[in-house]
Amino acid sequence: MKPTDKYTKLVSKLNRLTKEKKIDWKKVKPPFALKAGVDDVWIDFYSTWYADTHIGIGETRIQNYSEDYDKFYWSEKIVWALLDDNGELEYEFGNAEGLWNLLETIRRTLADVDSRIDHLINAPDDEED
Description:
By secondary structure, the chain is α+β, with helices and mostly antiparallel strands. 33% of the residues lie in helices and 33% in strands. The protein has one domain (3-122). It contains 4 helices and 5 strands. The radius of gyration is 18 Å and the shape is globular.
């Protein structure tokens, strides 16, 4: 199996386990090695322990320059990695199918979106301040 196929299989498994609430993620600061010497803007970064392995994932925005249009523009990228016991970078994975879905699942779970939407739907129409 090619590494990219293995990555996709792992991402799919992490997404499933996150949806099933068998993995708990927490919002943390991105590892220093991912921030040092670059102008990327980090939107968020999450980490978890699964099978005695520390994993991190987050979204960064990168400023690029287009020579054709002579202007700067922003692009987004998902970074996922193996982390050491202190949350520092050990290995940055390559791209894999399903990373955006995994990140969305993590965000949605941590924000408790479904429960909060249900609460808002069931809130009285004339709630007083």
